[in-house]
Write a structure and sequence with these properties.
Keywords: Signal
Number of helices: 8
Organism: Periconia digitata
InterPro entries: AB_hydrolase_fold (IPR029058), Dienelactn_hydro (IPR002925)
Protein name: Dienelactone hydrolase domain-containing protein
Bound molecules: 2-acetamido-2-deoxy-beta-D-glucopyranose
CATH superfamily: Alpha/Beta hydrolase fold, catalytic domain
Distance between the termini: 28 Å
CATH topology: Rossmann fold
Number of domains: 1
Structural class: alpha/beta
CATH architecture: 3-Layer(aba) Sandwich
Number of strands: 10
GO molecular function, one term: hydrolase activity
Order of helices and strands: HEEEEEHEHHEHEHEHEH
Length: 260
């Protein structure tokens, strides 16, 4: 394994880490292997296990604001699929994600963008995707991952009344409200970054207090040197970031492997 890593490092190409969890492999670069399908007007990225996948549990991937075109999101979906799950990643933004380079330039008005994607519309897309997994794909159980923006929507669809998501993992969630945490009904795993101002120490403490007071099944990890977004995109050359992304990936799969 060390030799393989060294070779990959020298080649400067694919950076992959073999994972103890069912032989899953985290791919940080390279070409995505999944496919888009139009499901009743929504573009949904599908990534399949190479063989013998789970017929009982699918992974629903709820993206950050960069949405489904982001190569890092597709590669992460592909990586989760290597743990023998079908991974389903819907376009939550109707073809209008934040462009990958937008945060670096002055052109982006995030207030405006958020207003174009009201919560009810995003919720409706998620509900339709959940129905698609249950009925068209005939997979009864849903484990969900949510990053940043998507980290708010996993809890929103994990309530006792929603019957949507059964098991959840979220990393560096944004705008996650106490009421949304209180309503969580299933096992939830949270990955946070020390350098993330969006899900900061105050938010983390609030979330953990609620989860404990509600007697929920949860885990919460904090990764040092990890910035906002670390679960999806890191500077792979920085050791702490590389560790944080890899560990968050393993955290999600370990959680699903045990609770699904
Ligand atoms: C398809 O989408 C339309 C709205 O775009 C919705 O009214 C309808 O219920 C959807 N059908 C299914 C099967 O999800
Ligand atoms: C899933 O279902 C297919 C088709 O029925 C079957 O061939 C396969 O063995 C099943 N996989 C598992 C892991 O049960
Ligand atoms: C951003 O968009 C909002 C809503 O459309 C608007 O009120 C605000 O003035 C805009 N901000 C900038 C800096 O253009
Ligand atoms: C976290 O952010 C909130 C605003 O969303 C702020 O009120 C709070 O003071 C921050 N906490 C820390 C420890 O920075
Ligand atoms: C908390 O949950 C555990 C496991 O589900 C259960 O055994 C225990 O009775 C619960 N405690 C309270 C105070 O509800």
């Amino acid at each position: 394994m060390l030799a393989r890593l060294a070779i990959l490092g020298l080649a400067g190409a694919a950076s992959a880490l073999a994972n103890a969890q069912c032989g899953a492999v985290l791919k940080n670069d390279g070409e995505p292997v999944g496919e888009f399908k139009d499901v009743n007007g929504t573009q949904i990225y599908h990534s399949y296990p190479t063989s013998g996948g789970s017929n009982t549990t699918a992974i629903l991937y709820l993206t950050d604001i960069f949405g489904v075109p982001n190569p890092q999101a597709k590669l992460l979906a592909d990586s989760l699929a290597t743990a023998a799950y079908t991974v389903i990643m819907p376009d939550l933004f109707k073809g209008d994600p934040v462009p990958l380079d937008a945060l670096e330039g002055p052109g982006l008005n995030l207030t405006d963008w958020v207003a174009r994607h009201p919560q009810e519309e995003v919720d409706a897309i998620i509900e339709a995707t959940i129905a698609y997994i249950h009925t068209t794909l005939s997979i009864p159980k849903i484990a969900a991952v949510g990053y940043c923006f998507g980290g708010k929507y996993v809890p929103r669809h994990m309530t006792a009344s929603s019957g949507g998501i059964d098991i959840g993992f979220i990393a560096h969630p944004s705008n996650l409200l106490p009421a949304e945490i209180e309503a969580i009904a299933g096992p939830i795993s949270i990955a946070a970054g020390e350098l993330d101002a969006t899900y900061n120490a105050t938010h983390r403490n609030t979330a953990e207090d609620i989860l404990m007071s509600k007697n929920l099944t949860f885990e919460a990890s904090l990764y040092s040197g990890a910035p906002h977004g670390f679960g999806v995109k890191v500077d792979w050359a920085v050791r702490e970031q590389r560790y944080a992304k890899t560990a968050a990936f393993e955290q999600a799969l370990r959680w699903f492997g045990f609770w699904a």
